[in-house]
Amino acid sequence: MRRRSSLPVTFLVPTLAILLVLSMVPTLYAIVIALQNRELSTTGYSWVWFSNFADLFLDRRFLNAVWVSVKWEVVTVVATMVVAIGLGVLMFEVAGPRLRNFYCLLFIIPVLLPRVSAAFVWKFAYHPLYGIATYPYRLITGGLIFDPLSKPATALFAVASVDVWQWGLFFAVIVLKLLETLPPQPIEAARLDHAKRWQIHAYVTLPMLKAPLISLMFVKMIESLRSFDLIYVMTRGGPGVATETLDMYAFSQGFIESGKVSYASAMAVLMMIATVITFTMLWKRVQA
Amino acid sequence: MKPYPTRPGRLVAKAILALAGFLAVFPLLWTALNALKNNVDIITRVPKVIFTPTLANISYILGRDSVLTGLYNSVVACGSAVLIGVVLGLPAAYAVARYPNRFAGDIQFFVLSLRFLPPVAVAIPLMVIWLQVGLYDTLPALIVTYSLLTISVIIWLAIPAFQGVPKEIEEAAFVDGYGAYAVFWRIALPVAARSLIGAIAFSFVLVWNEFLIALMLSSSNAKTLPIVASELSQQGMNVPWGILNASVVLLSLPPLLFLGVLSGFLNSVFRQKKS
Q1: CA distance to partner chain A, nearest, from residue B164 (Å)
Q2: Number of Cβ pairs closer than 8 Å across A and B?
Q3: ipTM of the complex
Q4: Domains (ranges, CATH) in chain A?
Q5: Residue B170 lies in a domain
Q6: Which chain B residues are closer than 8 Å to A165 by Cβ?
Q7: What pLDDT sits at residue A4?
Q8: Burial class (CB in 10 A: 0-12, 13-18, 19+), B274
Q9: Which residues pair with A47 in a beta bridge?
Q10: Which residues of B touch A130 (CB under 8 A)?
Q11: Which tens digit of pLDDT belongs to each residue from B118-145?
Q12: CA distance B231 to B225
């Protein structure tokens, strides 16, 4: 009787149709705009085909943005996974059930915050004169000034630290929950063989969790693409172009500096192609 | 499992955990504290813990039209988008979970792949589209755009929630003469309710926190709270810091209200995996 029902059709078709329209219309339109020369200030436009894309590859600021985006992805994904696995294992090892619940609750808080809030919280904290995070430095050095957000060498890492603060702590909770789902026998067996604690995790538990940990990393790679809010609030891509990621550059080309919507859209289309291809391939491999 | 005897390593581990727990909440607590300070107590080289609290910042924030409009826009836009996400997403998720067909895998991948789209790539064309149809800078435009987010996230999270409902209960209802729709309404929805609420809360937090799309799709009338808050800071460093801190606190409160629901949701997801 389940088979005959009209339910799957009535429940799925309208929703999927709406999702398809909502996603395909902007996607296709982004490509159309990228092939034109629209600007915000004027209404007329003509077709320029691939010249926007050709210009991009000669644009050194674009190439810089690609490089910054790649750095951002690598730094935030790696740091998040290291923090998550480290803290997850530590909670598993030394915290009892009640303490675990307590830490889990604390560690979920940062990720719930709007990125704009998190960015502000840390922008205040990193303030060279009045910030709470730079206070220890002022205290130790007797009032020297440390301004992580305005130095090209440190700005990206200072912003990335906020991302890791949000996601690393949250993923630590998930790593702990994953460890808790493991059967105890292999751990007991390793312990009987006099394996050290870190050895148990390095050679037994973490390899057992390889698949979910890779999925977790995959999720983080996707979420790391959404760096715009943090960077917009904390540095605006500065100092100079040190933290200008692709979405930041596309935004400033399209809206702040010149209103070159088509040029910005060409950038967005390249990002879209790159991420869709990369993640589709990764996803198929993760699933396989 | 018997615990190992106490060693210095365990103490170090506990200290690291305590430090991480402290780092998780302290910056936020400090911001909340600053929201209660007069400016002179914030702009000090040595952080002040003891000060005379003031409610001036908070009342200033709550008295500003731009903040109240932002709050209203955020509530209406996110509320409507979540409602649309529930109405369209939950049935679709149930159909995928309970009526397996050869497209189920593709549907799940399609829904997930929507998350791969860079927000800029969606926002730029949508801005041009909404400008052309005359809906730019209106709440309906924002609601429709956010619905894409809420529908896909709710489907993604609700599929496992419906799969967690014991099949036997549904089979029994069929035997009792319930139709397919009645089983969904009267059995699957109520049984899965707890996990579903977690999924819905998650989608709300996601759109409440959304920034880039709101920034690009609004110029004055439809600004959401994150946009208003970010603009407060752009009036230069002369802006009273207490007011900024107060606006951050106001912006952060709604998602934090869901802390309990979401951590319960997380627990139920993993309990399901274990069994």
Answers
A1: 17
A2: 273
A3: 0.86
A4: 35-287 (1.10.3720.10)
A5: yes
A6: 23-24, 27
A7: 67
A8: exposed
A9: A36
A10: 42-45, 47, 241
A11: 888 888 889 889 988 999 999 999 999 9
A12: 10
